[in-house]
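PROTOCOL LOG
Step 1. Enter all chains and additional molecules of the complex.
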Amino acid sequence: MQVSKTLDYALRSLTLMSSSPVSTYRMKDISEQRNIPLNYLAKIMRKLVNKGIVRSRVGPDGGYVLEKPPSDINLKDVYEAIEGEMRVVDCMDKDALCTFYESCPQIPVWDKLHVSLTDILKRTTIEDMVKQNHL
Amino acid sequence: MQVSKTLDYALRSLTLMSSSPVSTYRMKDISEQRNIPLNYLAKIMRKLVNKGIVRSRVGPDGGYVLEKPPSDINLKDVYEAIEGEMRVVDCMDKDALCTFYESCPQIPVWDKLHVSLTDILKRTTIEDMVKQNHL
DNA sequence: GTATTATGGATTTGGGAGGTCCACAATCAT
DNA sequence: ATGATTGTGGACCTCCCAAATCCATAATAC
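Step 2. Run joint prediction.
Step 3. Record the structure below.
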């Protein structure tokens, strides 16, 4: 029941970038200012690019810009960019069908957790985090 | 953000035992009926014993009994018996102090998740699971 | 054409969840 | 008191994956 370091890194980067949402940030600067291993950050940024959360430009004067204003980036999107769709237990997956699936007493509980988590993440934006709104 | 297989195993065992809360269940039977590797189950049961959730007796006619009625066993206790105290992020630990701890914008969010999760677990008992109450 | 930047894939490493094994202790029946 | 049955407790193994590293390449600016 823990948040991954990778998600932490992604949020560190996004909150940094949201301090000046129109500027371009070079990977190297993000890495240094937020204490993230450069080459690992590269992989993380690609995921954010692919999800349409940030835009990238190559070459001198290149770097990353937020694709949307911080108030339009919610944590559920960031989570899914990094981890894929949230699944609290594996048996929710079609492939890994558990023997007891038919009458499993646990599923409603995990479902409830899942809804609650997803809800909080969906309602919280990068702006909320930075401005400490709704928290 | 996933529930461990070990916690799943613990809950499978407890829901089985709650079908007849006064009877004694042999480890071997729990293992077979709930599809849990016998020797691994041994480690899990010890944790439940140490937390005072089940009682054990050695020897012929030995086995495990619920220490309390299923309506008095909540999932937070079971979670903590298995995983220790819940920590959504590592920086909540005193030892692993993060560089940005002083002004970390993430902490309020993780705190909110933590409260929400803990709350649901605390309010849900083994009886609720079995009878599908409150769910 | 050269410097600067991101891209994308291959590869390594460490730690821990999940699982196994076994010698031992407690308890029961005969 | 002996043997069968059961849980105990620790040592140990194994495999997977998050985290990290490395590098050759592509894009863009001047």
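Step 4. Note key features.
Residues 87 and 93 of chain A are 8 Å apart (CA to CA).
Chain A touches chain B at residues 1-3, 8, 11-12, 15, 34-35, 75, 79, 83, 86-90, 99-100, 105-106, 108-110, 112-113, 116-117, 120, 124, 129-130, 132, 135 (CB under 8 Å).
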